[in-house]
Design goal:
Thrombin, subunit H, single chain, 4 helices
């Protein structure tokens, strides 16, 4: 069975009882899950409030792992609710039968949009990168290093690990209201394998993958071991949420569909992977033409995002709906409906 975070299971099992989710009009009575589908697209197709998918999970609790959908599964409308029938073959494992890899559930979000962010970049605390190992030079003594090169690293202590990642210090992530630093982005540069023992405090890495050229002084950390979570249940946060978009992955001033953003809420605030948040325009005040005073306009929803990676004080989310322009510093909160 595929892993599912216990904290999310607890949320589903002890969460407050909600009304049955309303179906969209004219949905197909039967749908067969296809390779290339995402859980969000299916939830969005069937439910007026896609973040109520946990109610579908509860309605199919007789399945071994109802939180997942697999290619070949059949979704059917039964009495105004959704029932799931497994279409994948049951694989029986036996010492005398060759091992067959278990099918993987379809991802919750489009992988081409979030894959670069599932394990990198990192958000680190003050001084964490400064204390890390660093690149001294490459084997050819050139200024820049690339794919296939060997680099020399000083300060590595975890020589029992074979894989390492190279990072470059990025920007500080600040809370827009308090101006407090919530963390520092560590920009992923490359990955390498340890190929030589440390001599005089210097170890050798062979570069296996790279996203940018490597500079002397770039920092080196052990590669993350944990497999990224790609299948999870979209849900509304169980508590009131109010935050802001504080950064955009590609540093644009206008944010659109399937762009990755950073919000000023993290695990310390109760944010979990799979949280669906509404995006609202920043507070807009205009001058009353008769009384000459500024008045606050009602907030308007600009779109939706889903959190797919969390840190202590910030989280990464993917914009899944954009009904009007979205900008950095726009607000995020609980979805309505």
């Amino acid at each position: 069975m595929h892993k599912f975070p216990k904290i999310l299971w607890a949320f589903f099992l002890i969460g407050s009882v909600q009304a049955a989710p309303q179906l969209n009009p004219r949905v197909p009575d039967v749908y067969v899950v296809q390779e290339g589908d995402t859980l969000w697209n299916i939830a969005h197709r069937y439910l007026k409030a896609p973040w109520q998918w946990p109610e579908v999970v509860k309605a199919n609790a007789e399945l071994e792992d109802p939180q997942f959908l697999y290619a070949g599964d059949v979704i059917a409308v039964r009495h105004a609710t959704l029932k799931i029938k497994r279409g994948r073959p049951v694989v029986k494992l036996s010492p005398r039968v060759r091992t067959v890899p278990l099918p993987r559930p379809i991802p919750t979000l489009p992988m081409d949009a979030i894959a670069p962010f599932l394990s990198r970049p990192l958000v680190v605390g003050k001084g964490e990168l400064r204390r890390a190992a660093y690149v001294v030079a490459n084997s050819d003594r050139r200024l820049l290093s690339g794919l296939g090169d060997k680099i020399y690293v000083r300060g590595l202590e975890s020589l029992d690990r074979r894989l390492f990642s190279v990072f470059r210090p990025g920007k500080a992530l600040r809370d827009p209201d308090s101006r407090a630093v919530l963390g520092y982005e560590a920009v992923h540069v490359a990955d390498g394998q340890l190929v030589g023992q440390k001599e005089d405090g210097v170890a050798t890495l062979h570069i296996l993958r790279m996203r940018d050229v490597i500079h002397p002084g770039d920092r080196v950390l052990p590669a993350e071991k944990e497999e990224a979570i790609t299948a999870f249940v979209p849900h509304a946060p169980p508590m009131p949420v109010e935050g802001r978009i504080i950064s955009v992955a590609d540093n644009t001033s206008r944010i659109g569909l399937y762009q990755v953003v950073v919000i000023n809420l993290g695990r310390d605030d109760g944010i979990m992977i799979g949280d669906v948040l509404a995006i609202y325009q920043r507070d807009i005040k205009v001058r009353d033409p008769l009384h000459r005073k500024k008045v606050q306009l009602p907030r308007e929803r600009s779109g939706l995002l889903m959190v797919f990676r969390t840190f202590d004080r910030v989280s990464y989310g993917l914009v899944l709906q954009a009904v009007r322009d979205i900008h950095p510093l726009d607000k995020v909160g609980n979805p309505e409906g």
